[in-house]
Write a structure and sequence with these properties.
Layout (H helix, E strand, L loop, with lengths): L2 E3 L7 E11 L4 E5 L3 E8 L2 E5 L2 E5 L4 E4 L4 E6 L4 E10 L14 E2 L12 E3 L9 E3 L6 H13 L4 H20 L7 H17 L6 H8 L3 H12 L3 H16 L7 H8 L4 H12 L3 H8 L8 H5 L13
């Protein structure tokens, strides 16, 4: 039975947050979750099927769907999807169920175990799957939630709940028809962000990007901040860190190679940036995301990208 509620009543309970990767070799198909899911695409391209509908995935895509729907991630061939995922309820009614609840294959899913299904009476769009593009402004919130969940400092859960509530309220504003930025500015900014993602492995300064688009770097930085919440330089660092996250899942790639492949010329600066963005050191992240006994491949030793193997809880 669904509980009826209004947007103003949202008091989310976060059950799990983490960053994960999927590739064409490691797919996640035809499963159902028992609680709500929010997923953000940080890097990579592919498709997502929820229920009977399929949507394209690209950097900046944000997805939100209720429990009980069959879904599949389908990365493009030779692509790796870098994602942030949140398992949550819209209320704290089931806060006693704190442990992450893994999705089940659709064939064995038990519909009577659904947790926290709700029906919004004032914003029906939240009652169905949502796929929103150009949501880079949400990335900083997802990164902050992931950092809180990873570090687990005092009151981390309370802060994560609060961050998700702010994000959900922003989404509700967008869905309610609140004024959006000028489409021409959005398209211009999308082109700049795509350029940064494409060239982030190379030496790249604000001036270089300004010259590529014939705009003053300060103007470009304002456009990027308006759409992502980050300065131009911060967005460049995030793109490079996303590359590093993938490389670090291969144990044979030395940190110096990871830094260079991701576009950092200085290992100490890379480590400092990584800790600021992810919340832990590169070595600590590697220890958490490398399977025990995983062998190094020739590609890993040479510094080439190798697809990682994610866990299964938050997908």
């Amino acid at each position: 039975m669904q509980d009826k509620m209004n947007v103003a009543d949202i008091r989310p309970f976060v059950r799990y947050v983490h960053a994960f990767t999927l590739s064409d070799a490691v797919r996640f198909v035809n499963v159902c979750a028992y609680d709500h899911r929010l997923v953000y695409v940080a890097a990579g391209c592919g498709q997502m099927t929820i229920g009977s509908q399929t949507w394209p995935l690209s950097p900046g895509t944000l997805l939100l769907w209720p429990p009980g729907l069959t879904y599949s991630y389908l990365p493009e061939t030779r692509q790796t999807l870098h994602l942030y995922g949140v398992n949550f309820d819209y209320t704290d009614r089931f806060r006693h169920l704190k442990r992450p609840i893994a999705p089940d294959p659709a064939a064995v899913f038990q519909a009577d175990r659904l947790i926290g299904p709700v029906c919004f009476t004032d914003l029906g769009a939240l009652n169905q799957p949502l796929v929103l593009e150009r949501m880079q402004a949400a990335e900083s919130s997802l990164i902050a939630m992931n950092r809180e969940w990873t570090e687990q400092r005092l009151y981390f859960a309370e802060k994560t709940h609060a961050l998700l509530r702010l994000l959900l309220i922003d989404l509700a504003r967008r869905l309610s028809g609140a004024p959006q930025p000028d489409d021409r500015l959005v398209q211009r900014t999308d082109a700049i962000l795509a350029y940064v993602r494409q060239h982030c492995r190379q030496p790249l300064s604000n001036g270089d990007i300004g010259r590529a688009f014939n705009f003053h770097p300060a103007y470009i930085s304002r456009l990027v901040r308006r759409q992502t919440g980050l300065s131009l330089h911060q967005y460049l660092i995030r793109c490079r860190i996303n590359i590093a996250l993938n490389l670090l899942q291969s144990p044979g790639v030395r940190l110096g190679v990871v830094a260079a492949q991701a576009g950092f010329s200085d290992l100490n600066y890379f480590s400092r940036c990584f800790r600021q963005v992810v919340g832990v050191s590169p070595n600590h992240y590697r220890s958490q995301h490398t399977k025990p006994g995983q062998a190094s491949s020739p590609a890993a030793k040479s510094g080439k990208q190798v697809n990682g193997s994610p866990g299964s809880i938050s997908k």
